[in-house]
Design goal:
Elements: H1 2-11, E1 17-20, E2 31-34, H2 40-54, E3 60-63, H3 78-106, E4 109-114, H4 118-121, H5 127-147, E5 152-159, H6 165-168, H7 172-180, H8 190-201, E6 212-215
Parallel strand pairs: 1-2, 3-4, 4-5, 5-6
């Protein structure tokens, strides 16, 4: 999904820097830098590299990094919980904190957090993941209230089940059960999420702030 988001920005003519732990394997047309979102120094170095590449502050940040360690609550270890929250929630915080320095200087910017329908609905065996993804909503809305006057917006995209290699590898019965629970009766394509992210970064979305936009085929409606 992260690759699809980057490709959507590249296709729109934007100058794109993507991050990965290795600093390699980015999409064509994008510059890839190494970054571990659980490490503040690594995040700072990645932003510095991006700023040098752009010749100025980063205008749009998409916080998409995420991991899972699913297991039942009674079996979930402290490390299972802490590692997921550190990557999914604290990692987004580190990126947003670093990005806002440049955004304040340039008097504007966009911060977009990629959450999940699970953050709104919850999921058995996903106490850690759901907590981390729900936390992004409070983070975005706090940033929106704090920095809205400086023309910086913070919004959340909450995807549902996406048709990826991971979901295609699921047992057919499990995959069918997921699809049957979705009013749209299908999974989303990664580009359907990417285009919503791209919209939130565009000029026409300048008055959208602190919003949670579901891209889930109706699975989480009402939340």
């Amino acid at each position: 999904m992260g690759r699809a988001i980057a490709e959507a920005f590249v296709a729109a003519g934007d100058d794109v820097v993507v991050t990965s732990r290795s600093g390699t394997d980015g999409p064509d047309g994008a510059t890839t830098v190494a970054c571990d979102v659980t490490d503040t120094a690594s995040v700072d170095a990645a932003f510095t590299a991006a700023e040098e590449h752009f010749g100025g502050p980063v205008e749009v940040v998409v916080a998409n990094a995420g991991i899972t360690h699913d297991t039942l609550l009674m079996r979930m270890t402290d490390d299972d919980f802490d590692s997921v929250v550190d990557t999914n929630l604290a990692g987004a915080f580190r990126c947003a904190r670093r990005a806002t320095k440049g955004m304040i200087r340039r008097k504007g910017g966009r911060i977009i957090f990629v959450s999940s329908v699970v953050g709104l609905l919850g999921g058995p065996g996903q106490v850690n993941y759901a907590a981390s993804k729900a936390g992004l909503v409070g983070m975005a809305r706090s940033i929106a209230r704090e920095l809205g006057k400086k023309a910086i917006t913070a919004n959340v995209v909450a995807p549902g089940f996406i048709d990826t290699d991971m979901t295609r590898a699921l047992p057919e019965a499990q995959r069918k059960a997921y699809v049957d629970s979705i009013p749209a009766a299908r999974m989303a394509e990664p580009d359907e999420v990417a285009q919503v992210v791209r919209f939130l970064a565009s000029d026409v979305a300048g008055y959208i702030n602190g919003a949670v936009i579901p891209v889930d085929g109706g699975l989480g409606m009402g939340h």
